[in-house]
Amino acid sequence: MTTIERFILDQEEKYPEATGELSNLLYDIALAAKIIAASIRRAGLVNILGSAGATNVQGEEQQKLDLFANATLTNALNHTGRVCVMASEEDEMLIPVPDNYPVGKYVVLYDPLDGSSNIDVNGAVGTIFSIYRRVSLEGHGALADVLQAGCKQVAAGYVIYGSSTMLVYTTGQGVAGFTLDPSIGEFLLSHPKLVTPRVGKYYSVNESNFARWQKGTQWAVRGLHGDRPEEIKGKNSRYIGSLVADFHRNLIAGGIFLYPSDSRNPDGKLRLLYECSPMAFIAEQAGGSATDGTRRILDIMPDHLHQRTPLVIGSREDVGYVADTLRSLQQDRA
Ligand code: P6P
Are residues 8 and 155 in the same domain? Predict the structure, then answer.
């Protein structure tokens, strides 16, 4: 029985220069995940379901659990002396470390409860986090510490609150998965080395946007439907409407998730810094890949905090097929 704390410490021992701060930061996040999981499991029994009666910076209606998860993560991190600044999907501005607490060398960005529209219907939801080293030299962190390309991440992970609660993370040495044992309140190592199949069984995309996609996207998705078996074998459609749940299924079973740009979302819907970059780090560490259709997600340099990007992520050969198809169609048009 390997707890996440034991696993993190074992990983730390491989780095003589490690100070243990990143290990403790990961453990802080695991604690927040346990608290959020406990609330989600009881959401139908206590007054924490439903709308909070406000909208976030994205213009999305905030659920009470969104705000609870956001506060839980922020309060688990802001006093530890391990972070210099935080950022969240639920907060328009950067989240500073309170003045009466020390600042540290890490930056944490998070989507505290992704897919929250699934909460009231008992669908799977998730937490996504991304960790960088600060680039500023001292004092409180600033925007420059947050606006870093995904390839600079030192760690990334997600928690899926599904049929079981799992925490999946990477520090650049592969991907490990932990399942929460509620009887002892510990995340136990259940997936020591997650590797995603090179070719997937599933494709995941919101087909109701089909008419609004660019022609190249429509053509590539028709390939995933199986219209051109000489190019690629058709796949089963699976789409939950929760990035963490769709991504996790495809990571385990093999598959491709797409949220392309469309005439209503010209830059795509998903956010680069706290959704796409962390998921891209995990995908690549598991042998998969992630692009915006043309550029590697981890190479994209963010311009602003809540920047959106199109996303194509999952099994390497499937992502390669979509990227090659889009590229060849653009060349034909050129
Ligand atoms: P749509 C949830 O709101 C989310 O941000 C992701 O978790 C999910 O993949 C996507 O949006 C679903 O968006 O437009 O298909 O409902």
Answer: yes
The total of structural domains in the chain comes to 2
**Residue 280, domain member (yes or no):** yes
What pLDDT score was predicted for residue 47? 66
Q: What is the pLDDT of residue 52?
A: 72
Closest CA relative to residue 311, chosen from 297, 323, 324, 332: 297
Residues with CB under 6 A from ligand 1: 114-115, 117, 206, 241-243, 246, 269
Last residue of a domain, one of 191, 223, 254: 191
242 CA distance to ligand 1 centroid (A)? 6
Domain boundary among 191, 223, 253: 191
Cα 110 to Cα 127: distance, rounded to the nearest angstrom: 7
In this prediction, residue 90 carries a pLDDT of: 95
Q: State the distance from the centre of ligand 1 to the C-alpha of 258, rounded, in angstroms.
A: 11
In angstroms, the CA 245 to CA 252 distance is: 11
Residue 107: which domain range? 4-191
Same domain? 175 vs 88: yes
Element (H or E) spanning 49, and its range? none
For ligand 1, pick from 57, 58, 111, 114 the residue to mutate: most ligand atoms within 8 Å of CB.
Answer: 114
